[in-house]
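Pasting as-is:
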Amino acid sequence: MSKNTDSTWEPKDPEKIAKHFLRLGWIGFWVQLILLSLPIFLLFYVLFIKSTESIASKGIDLSAYLSNGSLLVMLFTTFWFYRYTKLAPKILAPELRPSHNSVAKTIWVGLWASVVGVFFSMMLMINAVTRLLFVLLATPLTGVPVAAAGSNPGHTLSAIDAVSLASLLFTLSAELTVLLFSIWLLFKITKDTVPEPEQL
């Protein structure tokens, strides 16, 4: 095992590693924060602005989407990327620098949280698109009925269906972005600690 993986981790270029953590940490934080506000705004719109009839007739339940854990995972990864920005100055300071294992574990936590978020979003999107497909297949010749008060929400489509899909798409985009950022950071610190080949 390389000595760089223990408590005396000495990166070859600490400034470059710290810059990656700082830059990707802030980008990931703001991307998630912006995209995270969209489903929250849409939920507020559905619950407090739209009428009771519209809420009853919507096809894809935003509250169910939020309760399935995707929002909680995204909140966690948003906080985790903010943590990366605080890790950057510690990497620069030798007296505060965490061990390589500690940094790697931090990245792995963010990576696996992103994977869980992607899984939730994909399952919810598959469920939503499948529901839309069944509605369209039920009326292949006459078109899609417009949602109305008292109508069966299982056989109608409304604007909130498209809004819900857009919300899921935004969330999935953010989670894929932070997943790629986590993989990149893990690659950079792993590459940094690869031992030089011994000279024969």
